[in-house]
Structure formats: structure tokens, C-alpha cells
UniProtKB/TrEMBL annotation:
It is a multi-pass membrane protein. The chain crosses the membrane at residues 35-59, 80-103, 115-138. This is Uncharacterized protein. It is found in: Membrane. It holds the Pfam family MamF_MmsF.
Length: 161
């Protein structure tokens, strides 16, 4: 049996994608792998339904492809964290809005001043939402290109699960 030494490209691919040893190199990634991995990140736009969709991708495709398993796991962790934080902020926001209207006498004419902080909170929420969705879009683009992506702060924790 003749042994052929690895080419420079083989060594580069093995080094860069060593987490996917079972599948081989990036050249062995199918387009379906990239599509499912990218869609798992984009599912954040569907809120709770998107989290369920990402969970379904993870459950059904984890044995099919390590690449999909890795990205779906990262996306699922990110979506769950964002969903929980969003629900908590919504509870505070709704409670503050109701308290602001009732506590400042909105009906009596002073309530217009209570709208200003609420509008500021809405503006801050829009900016944060754009950042959250932009980060998910960036992650999906990495997945569509066949690249590995790990979310900042929570990515290492998700890997250990």
C-alpha cells in the first residue's frame, strides 16, 4: 500500500477544521450542511417559533453532520438567552409603562411627561434589537460560507453542554 503525503491544502484544511475530523475537510461539507447551519442562526427572526425550529434542526441533523450540530447548538443557545432576556425586559417595560401612566396622572394632563422616558426606552430597545439581529446575520453568513462561528461570552459555555 502506497502512502501519499498530504498536500499543503490538506494540512491547512485539517488545521483549520480539526473539529470536523469525522467529516474530513471543508471540501466535504455539502451545501445542505451550510444551509441548515445558516438557517439555524437566522431563525432568531421568528422569535419563539424560530427557537423551536432551531431545536428541530439540532435534533434531526446532529447525527447527520457535525457542522450542523455545532452551528445549531450555538444558535440555539444564543436564541434561548436572547428570548429569556427579552421576556424579562418586556415584563419590566410593560410594568413600567402601566405604572407610569397610572402613577403620574396621565388622565389629569401630566402624563405626557411620562411618555418621554418610555419613548427613550423604545429607542434603546430598537438599537439593541438591531445589534442582536445583526450579530445573528453575521453568524449565519459565516455558516453559509462553511466557517466555524462561536458567539462571544456564551459560545464556550454552549460548547461544553
Amino acid at each position: 500500500m502506497n502512502y501519499l503525503p498530504p498536500t499543503r491544502l490538506d494540512l491547512l484544511l485539517k488545521y483549520k477544521y480539526n473539529e470536523y475530523k469525522r467529516e474530513g475537510s471543508i471540501l466535504s461539507l455539502k451545501s445542505d450542511d451550510k444551509i441548515f447551519a445558516g438557517l439555524s442562526h437566522l431563525a432568531i427572526f421568528l422569535d419563539f417559533i424560530g427557537t423551536i425550529a432551531t431545536l428541530m434542526i439540532y435534533i434531526t441533523k446532529k447525527d447527520y453532520s457535525k457542522f450542523i450540530e455545532y452551528h445549531a447548538k450555538q444558535a440555539l443557545g444564543y436564541q434561548v438567552v436572547i428570548l429569556l432576556i427579552s421576556w424579562a425586559i418586556n415584563l419590566v417595560f410593560i410594568g413600567g409603562a402601566i405604572g407610569g401612566f397610572l402613577g403620574t396622572g396621565f388622565i389629569m394632563g401630566q402624563g405626557l411627561l411620562s411618555i418621554i422616558p418610555m419613548v427613550s426606552l423604545v429607542g434603546i430597545r430598537v438599537v439593541i434589537s438591531l445589534m442582536i439581529y445583526g450579530y445573528a446575520i453575521f453568524a449565519s453568513l459565516q455558516a453559509f460560507q462553511g466557517e466555524e462561528f462561536k458567539y462571544i461570552v456564551i459560545g464556550d459555555f454552549i460548547d461544553r453542554l
